[in-house]
Specification:
It contains nine helices and six strands. The chain has 418 residues and is of the alpha+beta class. The strands form two sheets. Strands 2-3-5-6 form a four-stranded antiparallel β-sheet, with no helix packed on it. Strands 1-4 form a two-stranded parallel ribbon.
């Protein structure tokens, strides 16, 4: 038997081939690693770490820390130098002094208190910014999940419509059906396909709004994981005590009260204490020149005759009253917001339960009976398509109720900062 000689493959060529093969197999994994997988549960952590607006808001805390570091400090001391001499420079004097102002009220302590309270308020405002971003992101994600579920529903209906169109077309070719019925069934399937494309465009729009909230670039790929949970209405509550914006409002009201006290403390200016020392050279004829040293202590007390800071005190009192009124108004608004969201949740839960347990089974039964009647020659295509359309509308209504329930639940949880 004759042996065929195969051409030998160089070792370096084989190595290059397998390297390219492994790189090709590994490329999908690399591309998948670039995608961000997100779900309802992972949104808060992603917002906390990657949202650019929240990162910018964090500097409010740094600014407040800087104000606290600067507050409650004495003014810098002042150094004074005074030199005199006569025209022939035979007699002269040098005097140096250092002066420091001291408050006669508790102004420095009050400045520190105001800055400490405003630092706590800044932290609460950042937490509130995070609450708002998480709520907005969750609502967008809920809409995308609902669209995806709607697409699955339409896809299933599209498959059924195409099967029906194929069945009628085959029957028409055999002379057992109407060509018009076949055309109507194909048109119905095409309309479902068009609706799926519209949902694709809507999902792309919502995803475009969601990606910047998650700190993603335009080229990053977003993978949405999970499904809409089942309807489980939470217990009703309208307690606003956990809301960070309410905490911030309360702290700002407290700071306004302390600021009013500070303005009253400013009605009396600081006193000034000075220490001075100097030398003086004088001509004491006929003895000659004499040099003397001097030391002195002085102080200045401002007289509150023209400016008692009354206008600033009046302004601070009005700001204090406004801030406390804003706290009451915000608390009232939060309670109504939570109550409204809970009432909306309850209604959507009732609608979903009604559709799922009563209307959908009935519509499914009617659709099955209508389809069977058409196959048996006892019904018309219009009735069959109408019953299928009703089934699709009820399925969409049930999905919309589930979506709107979770949107209301997100608002309810955000209203109570849960």
């Amino acid at each position: 038997m004759k042996r065929l000689n195969r051409p030998s493959v160089p070792v370096h060529t084989a190595t290059l081939f397998f390297s390219l093969l492994f790189l090709g197999l590994g490329s999908p994994t690399t591309r998948a690693a670039e995608a961000l997988v997100i779900s309802l549960d992972s949104i808060p952590d992603r917002i906390r770490k990657q949202n650019p607006d929240l990162a910018a808001a964090q500097y409010r805390i740094t600014e407040a820390q800087g104000r606290l570091h600067q507050a409650g400090r004495l003014s810098n001391p002042e150094l004074g130098v005074h030199i005199t001499h006569n025209p022939n420079f035979r007699e002269h004097s040098l005097n140096m002094s250092i002066a420091q102002k001291f408050p006669v009220t508790q102004r420095l302590r009050l400045e520190k208190n105001v800055s400490q309270t405003l630092l706590k308020a800044a932290k609460a405002e950042v937490r509130n910014k995070e609450r708002q971003l998480v709520a907005t992101s969750k609502q967008l994600l809920i809409k995308v999940l609902a669209i995806r579920k709607q697409q699955q529903l339409l896809k299933k209906q599209e498959d059924v419509a195409q099967q029906l169109a194929h069945y009628i077309s085959q029957a028409a070719k055999k002379g057992e059906g109407s060509v018009l019925d076949a055309g109507q069934a194909q048109l119905d399937a095409a309309q479902l396909t068009n609706q799926i494309r519209h949902l694709n465009a809507e999902a792309a729009s919502i995803t475009g709004q969601l990606k910047p909230l998650l700190g993603m670039s335009t080229s990053d790929h977003l993978v949405i994981n999970g499904n809409l949970p089942k309807i489980q209405p939470p217990a009703r509550s309208t307690n606003p005590s956990k809301r960070p914006d309410l905490h911030a409002a309360q702290l700002n009201a407290k700071a306004a009260t302390e600021a009013a006290q500070l303005e009253r403390a400013k009605s009396r200016d600081d006193i000034e204490l000075s220490l001075s020392a100097g030398i003086e050279r004088t001509d004491d004829a006929p003895v000659g020149y004499d040099t003397e040293g001097m030391f002195g202590i002085g102080f200045r007390i401002p007289l509150p005759l023209w400016n008692k800071n009354e206008g600033a005190v009046q302004e601070a009192d009005a700001r204090q009253a406004r801030k406390h009124q804003e706290v009451a108004a915000l608390s009232h608004h939060i309670q109504h917001e939570a109550a409204t969201a809970h009432a909306e949740m309850t209604e959507w839960a009732k609608i979903s339960h009604k559709i799922s347990n009563t209307l959908l089974p009935l519509a499914q039964q009617q659709a099955d009976l209508s389809a069977q009647a058409y196959r048996d020659g006892q019904g018309d295509i219009q009735t069959t398509l109408r019953t299928r359309e009703q089934l699709l509308k009820l399925s969409s209504a049930q999905l919309n109720a589930l979506r709107d329930f979770h949107l209301a639940k997100t608002r309810y949880e955000a209203a109570l900062a849960k």
